Amino acid sequence: MSELRQIERHGVLVIAAEGRIDAAISPRLEELLRQALAGGQTRLVVDLAAVTYVSSSCLRALLVGARQAREQKGDLKLCALAPRVRQIFALAGFDQVFELWDSCQQAVSSFAAPPGGSAHTWASD
Amino acid sequence: MAQPLELAVASDPANLEQIAEFVTAAAAALGLDEQRAFELQMAVDEACTNIIQHAYGPGVAGEILIRCEIEGDDLVVILRDRGRPFDPNEAPQPDTTCSLEERQVGGLGIYFMRKLTDRLVFRCGPEGNELRLYKRRH
Known about the structure:
The complex is a heterodimer of chains A (about 120) and B (about 140).
Chain A: E1 3-9, E2 12-21, H1 26-38, E3 43-54, H2 56-71, E4 75-79, H3 83-92, E5 100-101, H4 104-110
Parallel strand pairs in A: 2-3, 3-4, 4-5
Antiparallel strand pairs in A: 1-2
Chain B: E1 6-10, H1 16-29, H2 34-56, E2 63-71, E3 74-81, H3 108-115, E4 119-125, E5 128-136
Antiparallel strand pairs in B: 1-2, 2-3, 3-5, 4-5
Helix pairs in contact in B: 1-2, 2-3
């Protein structure tokens, strides 16, 4: 079973996903992100700690969300990728375009860090 | 009891998980290691997603037949459907190196299918479409 939970942490919306995020679940993720962004919540973290698999539909939902968040001067960051999930991100080159954090706490705190601080960010070009 | 090597499901995204479980179990039974089984499962997931979303399209009650076979050194997953024909070999490759802003939203599923299998063979005829996904067993 797959599940998506929303938690607010220090002004950041954390979406904690679980299980397989395939084409059956991704439209829900895309809709959650769309609603959050439409409501002005532009600081987003998707927690992938309990995710065992992501398909291209999930990557697409994250891409659309991140692009919109950055347009609204926010960002969508990801955390706690299991080795298999990280492998899929690397295969698509998505490890180069998203900020990937080891833990949810780090991802949430990174929004408060001043630009150019010690956060290990990935360049988007 | 031997692992069943054929599965028929309705064209519905809700069945993707069942397809993944079937392919993973069949791949293990036919000698693929965990990594190769995972890669094959992912390629099949993307192929079936295409069948559901594009060959049949939303709301169309079609059927997908999935069969696993050994062919020489390869495990072959054969997908059959009666939707619109689509050859993944003819789709353009997405650029996986450009920035987030420049990324194409589509095309990644096909990219994964090609990258995670050794060969894709598509044919269509009066019996419908057949896509064969080849993965070397070792």
